[in-house]
Design a protein that fits this description.
Layout: E1 8-10, E2 20-26, E3 34-39, H1 43-47, E4 53-61, H2 62-68, H3 70-86, H4 94-99, H5 104-116, H6 121-146, H7 152-157, H8 161-172, E5 179-182, E6 193-196, E7 201-204, H9 205-213, H10 217-227, E8 242-247, H11 251-264, H12 273-278
Antiparallel strand pairs: 1-8, 2-3, 2-8, 3-4, 4-6, 4-7, 5-6
């Protein structure tokens, strides 16, 4: 595995602080109950005991994230296919019929009848075939998106390879505003990890302090049993949290900056069509 020691400080010393990477922290918004997470609470809050809680964002393996993102890619492909169907040069309003609930088979039958009766039969027939293929793929995508149990292989087969490759590159180059890629970290993951910036979690800071002060798992279990009545958040842990690395500067600052930008963005109304048109000057 390629080493990325310039990114991480392995087994850091000192009290918990911003940039620490822990395992076995609860991640309630993910399928897995516990996992890898990066602490984002400011250093000064730790140093001066300013907060009763600490905040962290979970990380998942790159391949896991890509697989979970199949839904997003399928929705993109569905939109592309809808636009493609609208733009077909066919003699009937096929897309409109499809939208109001007409069956694809009845639409195709009508299109084929009309195509045979036109001078552009060859061209129209080709469009009918493309329409049939696009509608069939749209139906399969909708079935996958609505299915409770999603087959990864089936989802992947419906996504164009180019789209899959482009999406992966966007993740690796940090071009998506709600995730951040981190390279492999020795002892944590042999492949790149993806920080899920929207899945911020908070937990009682005493849990982290307790984990830091415990040397063994046995000691952790004994102290959890003793302190859970006073610190209910301890019941959410499924194992002893372990700090295994710390993200170095300037990579930590880069993550925190992107995290802050995501939550500090402020949306404003767009110009109306009339206002936009009034700003366009003709030569």
């Amino acid at each position: 595995m390629q080493e990325f020691s310039h990114f991480y400080l392995a087994l850091p010393t000192g009290p918990p602080t911003q940039g620490d990477i822990w395992i076995n922290l609860p991640c309630p918004t993910l399928r897995a109950p516990t996992g890898v997470a990066l602490v984002v609470t400011p250093r000064c809050d730790f140093a001066h005991d300013k907060t009763p809680v600490f905040n962290y964002v979970p990380a998942v393996a790159l391949d896991t994230y890509i697989e979970e993102a199949h839904s997003r890619l399928l929705e993109r492909e569905l939109i592309r296919l809808k636009k493609q169907v609208i733009n077909f040069n066919i003699p009937l309003p096929a897309y409109e019929l499809l939208e109001i609930g007409a069956s694809p088979e009845s639409i195709v039958d009508e299109l084929e009848k009309e195509a045979k009766a036109t001078e552009l039969a060859k061209r129209a027939s080709a469009n009918v075939q493309e329409f049939r293929e696009s509608v069939d793929k749209m139906s399969r995508i909708r079935h996958v998106l609505e299915s409770q149990v999603r087959e990864s292989a089936l989802s992947k087969s419906l996504i164009p390879p180019r789209e899959m490759r482009t999406f992966r590159e966007q993740v690796l180059h940090n071009q998506l505003n709600d995730v951040h890629m981190l390279p492999p970290c020795l002892g944590v993951s042999e492949q790149a990890m993806v920080l899920l910036l929207r899945h911020i979690s908070s937990c009682d800071i005493r849990c982290l302090q307790l984990a830091y002060s415990c040397v063994t798992v046995r000691e952790w279990e004994q102290r959890v049993a003793r302190h859970t009545p006073d610190v209910p958040a301890l019941s959410n842990f499924r194992g002893k949290p372990e700090r295994i690395a710390r993200l170095k500067s300037p990579y930590l600052e880069n993550v925190v900056s992107r995290f802050a930008t995501l939550f500090m963005r402020f949306g404003v109304p767009e110009l109306t069509a009339t206002e936009f048109t009034s700003l366009i000057r003709e030569d």
